[in-house]
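Researcher: Structure prediction, please.
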Amino acid sequence: MKKVKGDLIALAQAGAFDVIVHGCNCFCTMGAGIARGIAKTFPEALAEDKRTGKGDRGKLGQISVAEIAQGDLRLTVVNAYTQFDWRGQGRKADYDAIRSSFSIIADRFAGKRIGFPMIGAGLAGGDWQVIEGIIEAELAGLDYTLVVFDS
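Model: Predicted structure follows.
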């Protein structure tokens, strides 16, 4: 897995990636973490999220996709439904959902430059070692980069 320090959104705007992925809950709320920045910078991603069923547990492990065109920038933003809810204590990251979402991403975006943050390991409380192993297995052979936020 390639790793860089930086700001995923800024790198995406600079053309470093064809596709960026972030983890979402199933309640159409992108109000915290990197999702908040994505919603603000790429409102099309939030609009696609809101087209899905609010609170629909069936979204776990699925994705929604927004195609972004801002000036010369052409970018795909993937909302990966990797946790059901954001409330409460403990781990909210669903490892099976992460695996399923990244399997879909691997099939749909092979040949693209894919960037993502430490999905599920921040506010969702997941174990990055576990999540990293899942992502590496699902994206094996593809061009993908972990962007570790550098404030």
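Model: The helical segments are 8-13, 33-41, 43-50, 95-108, 128-138.
Researcher: Thanks, that helps.
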